[in-house]
């Protein structure tokens, strides 16, 4: 079983810095989200406004607003008169998020294929894939994930509906946490992902909405595929249950 280290807020934020010339709320939100998604902050772990404020040398107001944004994405729970806690990892929310993303992204790649004459956008898609290949070859897992997100965002941008990607991201909290745990359990498919991305972009370049939809479904998979993948790795499901149970005990102990 994977054994993830316990970290305190102050330890995780000891080297984090904020740029006073940019929006503090968004910076704090991104920093905390990264620690939660990568399970450095575990389910049930308390997130003290004061500890975050002190560690980042920021006032409580932007910290509070960042925590509210995190609650909107499902990554934390704010309990009145108790505190803020990292949310449990929910398989149900994971399945729902996969369904939401698939349905919305089908529409995006179809619209992108209908705009295949936008050569600049097509070249941008191909450039992102090249960067993802480089990240894979360099063993840069985090960069690979960032380029993966950039590519899917670019589908929505090329489709002329970039705001929908922001909606998709709000549903992906547990998708991204489970994706991280899959990597830890060596449930990996990066090389296959590259090939699938190339197939989607090739279909978009050729101006074929049907082929783009087929390639996307082969990449993201159906709900049945996701359920089968999880079911075939009971050790992963057991660990998620252990994380959540430990988090519940941690919260009750406060």
TrEMBL record:
SUPFAM superfamilies per the UniProt record, alphabetical: GntR ligand-binding domain-like, Winged helix' DNA-binding domain
UniProt keyword annotation of Protein transport present: no
CDD domains linked: WHTH_GntR
Xref: InterPro entries: GntR_C, TF_FadR/GntR_C, Tscrpt_reg_HTH_GntR, WH-like_DNA-bd_sf, WH_DNA-bd_sf
Alphabetical UniProt keywords: DNA-binding, Transcription, Transcription regulation
Any one Gene Ontology molecular-function term assigned to this protein's record: DNA binding
Domain HTH gntR-type: 22-89
Cross-referenced Gene3D superfamilies: GntR ligand-binding domain-like, Winged helix-like DNA-binding domain superfamily/Winged helix DNA-binding domain
Protein known as: GntR family transcriptional regulator
